[in-house]
């Protein structure tokens, strides 16, 4: 095949991949609510989740009622390596992650977990998410309290028993600090609505959240 033919074939493969990714992301996976939850506490609480590119994760959770702020960043590695260029080498131990500040009087930790597993990412993919591959795109929860760790592990076990997915859940419960990402990664979805990646992979996630969890949309 000549150069032009190879280019056309590659473009076709990319287009097909984007269409498949969009179709998958437009559906909320029907999963049960968690049987266990973190008791509500006064003031805003923090949750940290990793599940692929932080642009889409951030966008989904910014639409959840009761969420006050979402920050894109890195978790699992050290402060010295918490930069996009270093994390992209896949050698730092970091995962692209988001920090969610939420009001437990309006939304519980278990509800955030349900959104995380159902529409924010695919918890069955190992060290990848959609078109992105490597351990920085892994599915991981970073509990901020012992109660969050207990609830997260219990919910993973509950979902595994429910067999909501054909493949095993790959989500890990890890320890690690969260470090905010560079300024240009914050609110990327809202600032770049026509970006090809946002259109193909992240807008469908937000649409799936809106249709799958209408009572949670703010």
TrEMBL record:
Keyword rRNA processing included in the entry's annotation: no
Active site: residue positions: 53
Residue ranges of domain Peptide methionine sulphoxide reductase MsrA in the record: 46-197
Matches recorded under SUPFAM superfamilies: Peptide methionine sulfoxide reductase
Keywords: Oxidoreductase
UniProt keyword annotation of Oxidoreductase present: yes
Catalytic activities: [thioredoxin]-disulfide + L-methionine + H2O = L-methionine (S)-S-oxide + [thioredoxin]-dithiol; L-methionyl-[protein] + [thioredoxin]-disulfide + H2O = L-methionyl-(S)-S-oxide-[protein] + [thioredoxin]-dithiol
Pfam families: PMSR
EC number: 1.8.4.11
Recorded family membership: Belongs to the MsrA Met sulfoxide reductase family.
Entries under PANTHER family matching the protein: PEPTIDE METHIONINE SULFOXIDE REDUCTASE, PEPTIDE METHIONINE SULFOXIDE REDUCTASE MSRA 2
Main function: Has an important function as a repair enzyme for proteins that have been inactivated by oxidation. Catalyzes the reversible oxidation-reduction of methionine sulfoxide in proteins to methionine.
Name by which UniProt lists this protein: Peptide methionine sulfoxide reductase MsrA
Gene transcribed to yield this protein: msrA_2
